[in-house]
Write a structure and sequence with these properties.
alpha+beta; 6-stranded mixed beta sheet; 4-stranded antiparallel beta sheet; 10 strands; about 25% strand
Length: about 325
Amino acid sequence: MRGLTDDFMRDLKEGSGALRGILDFVQADDSLSLEIRYDKCCYINIYYRGSSLYKISSDLKNPNRYSFKTDMKYFKAHKGRDDYFITMAKDLYNTRKYVEAIPYIKAAIDRHIRFVKRQGEKEAQQLTVYENNRSPVANSTHYYIADFEYENTEIGGRFDLVAIKWKNKQRMDAKLCVIEVKFGHKAVDNSNSTSPKKTADISKHLDDAICFFSDAKKVDALKEEAINIFNQKQELKLIEPIGNGIKKLKSLEAKPEFMLWLADYPPDSAALYNALNNNKDKILGIKDFDFVIASSSFAGYALFDDRVKKVADFMGW
């Protein structure tokens, strides 16, 4: 199950812990997000602008040692540009000064995004994590984001965001919510595209959701992971505290939610309505989960319940 071992948690939390400096940096920097991962062993990813700045994993043979990995493409020089930050990032990383390297790797990622590849959707995902978990308004929103860029080959789940929807925070009454993020309008409806490389659209994600949520064992496994991650992130002080002290989340109610979250979608585009109308019968037949769509609270990525509507109501069916 996804979650950090006691040793890993201690090395993050304790003053003398091998990873305490990393946690201190993340706690103080709202542009960073620490996500808990599992693949044969537990590890963490530190994200910046939707890009993985570090993958930090424990040594299976020596749990007191950790390996740090970043994508070497960030260290590629850009022709005609001042490469000071990239040089510093590479030098500090290669000499294992991992905490000191963070600001320079961030600068290298900024340059990679600007001159090589824009992130768009992944940046929107991380902004959603920040606004609902750590921002000044986080305690008034109705969703907590447990993970983004979630993938678990064991249960066959791959989702943009895995969230907890609060019904009552004081009583820790909540339900599971899986969120599919779409940035702009091009990936909303690909029904008329002939490109062999076309991205997954709403129809594909809806089919995947129906398949996943029809398997109660997979859904229960995802709920268990979401609960465990929420409780560990509270301990690590990576989310705004709920009330006084730490309150453990113990369960999530039976019926989950699947949300479409469209960031910067142009209101004059017909792509969304076409995609939903093309799947009307399928949507009206859904029984295992609530299919909802979110709109922004004026301008922003905070998720409020009164801005989340069932798709059938949104479409007026």
